[in-house]
Specification:
Layout lengths: L1 E9 L3 H19 L2 E6 L4 H7 L5 H8 L3 E6 L16 H9 L4 E8 L11 H4 L3 E8 L9 E6 L2 E6 L5 H16 L4 E6 L5 H14 L6 E6 H10 L6 E4 L1 H14 L7 E5 L5 E5 L16 H13 L4 H16 L2 E2 L22 E2 L2 H12 L2 H7 L1
Parallel strand pairs: 1-2, 1-3, 3-12, 5-10, 8-9, 8-10, 13-14
Antiparallel strand pairs: 4-5, 4-11, 6-7, 11-12
Helix pairs in contact: 1-10, 1-12, 6-7, 8-9, 10-11, 11-12
The structure holds nicotinamide-adenine-dinucleotide.
Nicotinamide-adenine-dinucleotide binds next to loops.
Length: about 375
């Protein structure tokens, strides 16, 4: 099959991790007989420098006519002094809104091989962790009415949290559909004891649950959810929540899985179209140093194969190649553990850890999928 992928490398480490991701996708194409055509597009700081706009029209129209979008990261120190509405990150909100990407999917997966990188107690995570955060992405307080006004207490500012039934219903359906293919449990997170918008959220999620009798639904207040994520994360299968609560909880979830350099994400709309990107930003501190972990971007491509192209075997092949590379002891710098004081004799640490850079990590994963000689022979 042929697939057209819009590729937005972006800024900082974005181009570095995307380069490795394309390398891995090409090996998948070789091994399984697909053709991936890439159209490289500008967005973020590099687009501001070259076109004056964070999200040029050409980029948006090319994304709309592609089968899916693969994005690195945008932003960086160079553009930090620009006013809010001119910053590189506005490209992300623009893409989400224009492409109607209302469902953000973030798997929180702790590989057994990296259990020691998790800051939680070993007994809490001893068999690894595997849950998914489904965050509503185009509504709520980030897109609601905002402004400033004068009050008796002086100058004031406000942002409105507003959700319609339809917005809640479609994100709830995404979560229930996802749970149907997993462990059949949805936890809906809100603040229904205080917020009117959360009361509507809870009512609509509960009504939608009736269409999915095989799924267990729990409602949880967001403050409790923040605690439960570190106390007992194994209780979760699929968490569904609003834009702002999902922003915070998915970052919390990212920390308990070891490194942000491992976390992929998908932003989906109705149908098969989606935008796939690592959870991390452009990491200007690492840019150009061959130190960024490309696995989050590579695993985002695995999500693309699964959710947009329905290529389940190919998707699993990428995930298991990443796992095999970790199992062999290869680690990018973010995953290296300092020798502990009790055990400075690294010869006792098994398996031996070998530090690799961005490029070598990509090469190793690509080689796991399809050795180069076979790949070159087919080309
Ligand atoms: P960041 O995710 O870029 O970096 C946070 C920390 O994680 C840094 O210490 C960084 O070195 C480390 N890190 C990030 N990705 C890594 C990787 N692949 N491998 C190893 N370590 C990694 O977040 P930040 O520092 O808050 O933001 C930097 C810039 O990125 C800002 O301009 C911000 O607005 C932007 N940003 C963009 C996105 C996006 O494009 N989706 C998301 C978040 C932040």
């Amino acid at each position: 099959m042929n697939y057209n992928i819009a590729v937005i490398p972006g800024d900082g480490i974005g181009p570095e991790v995307i380069r490795e991701t394309v390398k891995v996708l090409d090996r998948i194409a070789d091994k399984f007989g697909h053709k991936f055509s890439y159209q490289e597009l500008l967005a973020g700081g590099i687009a501001i420098d070259q076109t004056g706009k964070a999200l040029p029209e050409d980029t948006l129209s090319a994304c709309k006519s592609s089968d899916s979008v693969l994005l690195g990261a945008v932003g960086g120190w160079k553009w930090d002094d620009l006013p809010g509405d001119k910053r590189p990150e506005t490209a992300l909100l623009g893409l989400r809104k224009a492409l109607e990407l209302y469902a953000n999917i973030r798997p929180a997966l702790l590989f057994e091989e990296l259990a020691s990188a998790c800051p939680l107690k070993p007994e809490i995570v001893k068999d690894g962790l595997d849950f998914v955060v489904v965050r509503e992405l185009t509504g709520g307080i980030y897109f609601g009415e905002k402004g400033t006004k004068e009050t008796d207490m002086g100058h004031a500012a406000y942002d409105v949290e507003l959700y319609s039934e339809k917005e809640v219903q479609r994100i709830a359906q995404t979560a229930f559909d996802m749970a149907s293919k997993r462990n059949k449990k949805v936890t809906s997170v809100d603040k229904a004891n205080v917020l009117e918008s959360s009361r509507l959220w809870r009512r609509v999620v509960s009504e939608t649950a009736k269409e999915y009798p095989q799924i267990e639904l729990n409602n949880m207040y967001v403050d409790n959810a923040a605690m439960q994520l570190v106390r007992d994360p194994k209780q979760f299968d699929v968490i569904v929540t609003s834009n702002i609560f999902g922003d915070i909880l998915s970052d919390e979830a990212s920390q308990i899985t070891g490194s942000i350099g491992l976390l992929p994400s998908a932003s989906l709309t109705t149908g098969n179209f989606g935008m796939y990107e690592p959870v991390h930003g452009s990491a200007p501190d690492l840019a150009g140093r061959d130190k960024a972990n490309p696995m989050a971007a590579i695993l985002s491509a695995a999500m693309m194969l699964r959710y947009s192209f329905g290529l389940l075997e190919e998707s699993d092949e990428i995930s298991s190649a990443v796992r095999r590379v970790l199992k062999k002891g290869y680690r990018t710098p973010d995953l290296m553990e300092p020798p502990s004081e009790e055990n400075t004799d690294m010869t006792n640490v098994a398996p031996a850890k070998k530090e690799v850079g961005t490029k070598e990590a990509g090469d190793l994963i690509a080689e796991e999928i399809c050795p180069f000689i076979l790949s070159a022979g087919k080309a």
